[in-house]
Design goal:
By secondary structure, the chain is an alpha+beta fold. The chain has one domain (about 35-195): NADH Oxidase. Helices cover about 40% and strands about 15% of the residues. A four-stranded antiparallel beta sheet has the order 1-2-4-3. The termini are far apart. The structure holds flavin mononucleotide (FMN). Flavin mononucleotide (FMN) binds next to strand 3.
């Protein structure tokens, strides 16, 4: 993989000791960007399913797997979604090859007997505890959302995550029947040029964020 000097210029990467090649680390993290501009190249449901089949193995508490995906593809569906995006994000939803609404399912507990048979009793115990379920669903679905962003990159796709939206409006528009709760929207495709006009921003270092006790 080539190194884009305009993107990486001035950033100081420590030499990590990785179990994957530098090319893979570049693809997943160092050269990946949050993309706003995509080519017209299509992204199929089969591609999205392949990404999900990979990232479903990422860990969640009790193996609850509460992330749900709404694949927004038709012009009608895009217009319905765009109406609930903040102004700066609206055009991007209309222009992207495909958009995903990432959502958490507070009804995840119904699947515990299958997904965590050793804890089957928890399904009934959690049933009256909506607030606890919402919290668990959100925490673990957000974890899975992170896995998904990296998985999309692993499939050679680019992603543009966008939280600037009316989540309650999206929930009423799309999830009135199943009770899913939207987290954020991700546009998916292949980046046009650099995919963004924003220069790469620096990141906190390990020393900035870690304390050792
Ligand atoms: C959960 C989430 C929500 C975001 N929401 C927006 C958004 O509403 N609008 C936007 O332009 N960018 C949004 N971003 C993009 C971030 O600004 C971007 O990921 C960050 O600046 C890092 O950019 P880079 O990946 O290109 O280095 C969002 C990113 C994430 C992960």
């Amino acid at each position: 993989m080539t190194t884009d000097a305009t993107v990486l210029d001035g950033l100081d990467f420590p030499t990590p000791s990785l179990a994957v090649s530098d090319d893979v680390a570049d693809l997943l993290f160092r050269e990946a960007r949050s993309v706003g501009a995509f080519t017209a190249q299509d992204v199929t449901d089969e591609q999205l399913a392949a990404v999900y089949d990979l990232v479903k193995w990422g860990p969640t508490a009790l193996n609850t797997i509460p992330l749900r995906l709404l694949v927004v593809r038709t012009p009608e569906a895009r217009a319905r979604l765009a109406a609930h995006m903040n102004e700066g994000n609206r055009e991007r939803v209309l222009a992207a090859p495909v958009s995903l609404v990432l959502a958490a399912d507070p009804g995840f507990h119904k699947h515990i007997p299958t997904l965590a048979p050793h804890m089957a009793g928890l399904s009934d115990a959690l049933d009256p505890q909506l607030e606890t379920r919402q919290q668990m669903a959100r925490t673990n679905a957000l974890l899975q959302a992170g896995y998904l962003l990296v998985g999309l990159r692993a499939a050679g796709l680019d992603a543009g995550p966008m939280g600037g939206m009316d989540a309650a409006g999206i929930d009423a528009e799309f999830f009135a029947e199943n009770g899913w709760q939207s987290l954020f929207v991700v546009n998916v495709g292949h980046r046009e040029g650099a995919g963004t006009h924003h220069p790469r921003a620096p990141r906190h270092t390990f020393a900035d964020v870690a304390q050792t006790v």
